[in-house]
Amino acid sequence: MSKISSLVVFGATGTQGHPVVDAALRAGLSVRAVSRDVVKAEESLSSRAEVCEADLLEADSVRQAMAGMDAAFFYLPVMPQSAEAEAMLEHVIAAARAAGLQRLVFTTSAWCGEAMPPGPFVSGLRAASERVLNSGVEAVVLRPTLYLANLVWPHILREIRELGQLTYPPLDSGRRLNWTATEDQAKLAVAGLEADVAGEVFDIASPEPVTGPELCRMLAQVYRREVHYAPQTVADFAETLSHMAASAEVGRSVAALYEGIDRMPEDGPLIDTEALEQRFKVRLTPVSEWVEQRMGALLDLYGQKI
C-alpha cells in the first residue's frame, strides 16, 4: 500500500466527524470534508479543508465525494438496522471500490462488543461492521463505548446547571466503565490509516474508567457546584430520546443499548486503552483531563454555555 495522503470525512460538521477533520489536518493530510450543509461546514471547519456537499443516501454524490481520495472515514447517522442504513452502506462500499480507496475507517458510533446481549440495534451494528470488513476494500472498524460528547446534550447541561444532577447514562451508579472522547476516536481513525490494522475490529475508549458518582465529582470542578448522579430509568431515557430524535423507534432502540450494558454481570465496558495506545502509537486522553480541558471548548464549538 502506498502512503495515504488524502482523507474524505463524511459527517464532517458533527461531533464525530469534526475531530477527524482536525486530526487529519494536523497529520498533514489533504482533507475533503463532506456535509449536507455546505454553509455550516465552511463556517465551522478549517479553511484548509475542502468542503464537499454529499448525502450518504445519494449514490452519485457519495461517489463524487470519494473520487481521487486515498481513504475515507464514515459512520451511520441512522439506525443500523434500517433500510436507510443498508442503502448508505451499499453506496459507501460501491464508491470506495470505484475510487480504489486504500483504506476505509468505519465507526459503529456505539458499543456492540461480544459481551453485549443481541438486539436489533447491536445486531445491526455488527452486521454493518461485517459488511465493511468484507467490502473488498482494506478496512478497520472502531467500536467506541459511550461518548463523552453526550454530556453536552442541552437537557443534560440544563439539569446540571439548575438542579445539580446528572441523569445520564441510565446505568447503575456502581458500574465502572470507560468513556470515549470523540477526539480520541479521531486520533485512532487517522492513525489507523497507516497502522497495520486492516481487517480488524477494535473496541476503543479513553483511559480512566469511572462510575457515575466519580464522573459527577469531575463535572463539579467544571460547573463549580455539587453534582449528584441521579440516573434515569431506561424507560424514561427512551422517552427522552424519542423527543430528542422525534422518533419513538430511535428512543427504544438506543435505550435498549444501555439496558444491555446494565445487564452485563460485571463492570464495563472496560477497554485496554494502553494496548490501543501501543498498537496505534497515539496518546489517548484520560476522562478527567477531557472534562477539565476539552468540555468547555466543545460547549463553545456547539453554542452551549455552562
Question: How would you portray this structure in words?
Answer:
The protein has helices at 17-26, 38-44, 59-66, 83-99, 120-133, 154-163, 182-191, 212-223, 234-245, 248-263, 273-280, 287-293, 295-301; strands at 6-10, 30-35, 50-53, 71-74, 103-107, 139-144, 146-147, 165-166, 179-180, 201-204, 228-229. Strands 3-2-1-4-5-6-10 form a seven-stranded parallel β-sheet, sandwiched between helices. Strand 5 (103-107), helix 5 (120-133) and strand 6 form a beta-alpha-beta unit. It is an alpha/beta fold. Helix 1 crosses helix 7 and helix 9 packs antiparallel against helix 10 (248-263). It has a single domain (6-301), classed as NAD(P)-binding Rossmann-like Domain (Rossmann fold). It is globular. It holds the Pfam family NmrA. This is NAD(P)H-binding protein.
Shape: globular
Order of helices and strands: EHEHEHEHEHEEHEEHEHEHHHHH
Low-confidence stretches: none
Structural class: alpha/beta
Number of helices: 13
CATH fold type: Rossmann fold
Total separate domains: 1
CATH homologous superfamily title = NAD(P)-binding Rossmann-like Domain
Mind describing the biggest β-sheet?
A: 7 strands, parallel
User: Cα distance, first to last residue?
Assistant: 46 Å
Strand content: 5-15%
CATH class assignment: Alpha Beta
InterPro entries: Ergot_Alk_Oxidoreductase, NAD(P)-bd_dom_sf, NmrA-like
Domain NmrA-like: 6-271
Protein name: NAD(P)H-binding protein
Pfam families: NmrA
